[in-house]
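Deviations from the work plan: none for this task. Representative record:
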Amino acid sequence: KQEVTQIPAALSVPEGENLVLNCSFTDSAIYNLQWFRQDPGKGLTSLLLIQSSQREQTSGRLNASLDKSSGRSTLYIAASQPGDSATYLCAAISSNTGKLIFGQGTTLQVKP
Amino acid sequence: GAGVSQSPSNKVTEKGKDVELRCDPISGHTALYWYRQSLGQGLEFLIYFQGNSAPDKSGLPSDRFSAERTGGSVSTLTIQRTQQEDSAVYLCASSPGLLSRPDTQYFGPGTRLTVL
């Protein structure tokens, strides 16, 4: 059974700092891994999706990496801004149906 | 274009009542998912529809939960005889479903259900 863990649960950084959010999964047989952002009281916004054959994906200041052999993914945020404050969720897909198995999330606060 | 929409945005009900939650996926998306987000359990998969195939119901927590998808588009999640532990945000997502592998899922804003 796939389990996804995110560390840390919460993170507070000053504006401008580069930061890394960690995600680990127990079953390396994944189809892909997806990172989401969730703002308070809102739904989920997809940030990046990494296919199992890929090692990383980039979008603007965001870079996500995937290491299947070690069961890890990281989300790197460069030059953080107060608007980046949100909860970041990673989710692994281990089934061809595409159902997502989510971590508990990392709540990020970027202070001006 | 329009994203995934869900209604109602908030629902307050009394214990024992039935509720229906609606999801309108992105037009043309053949895959549709329901998830539940609660304080104690995080985000959990409930059910998955893909085209005309039999749905994957493996995440439904009890037989009080059911879902249908009519005409391959709109989906309704029904919870019968609601219990307080059903209180959560119910999220719907859709995906193009055109690839042979899972693709990006796009989420709606959710329905916040409170069972008194």
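The interface with chain A takes residues 4, 31, 33, 35, 42-45, 48, 50, 56, 58-59, 91, 93, 95, 101-110 of chain B (CB under 8 Å).
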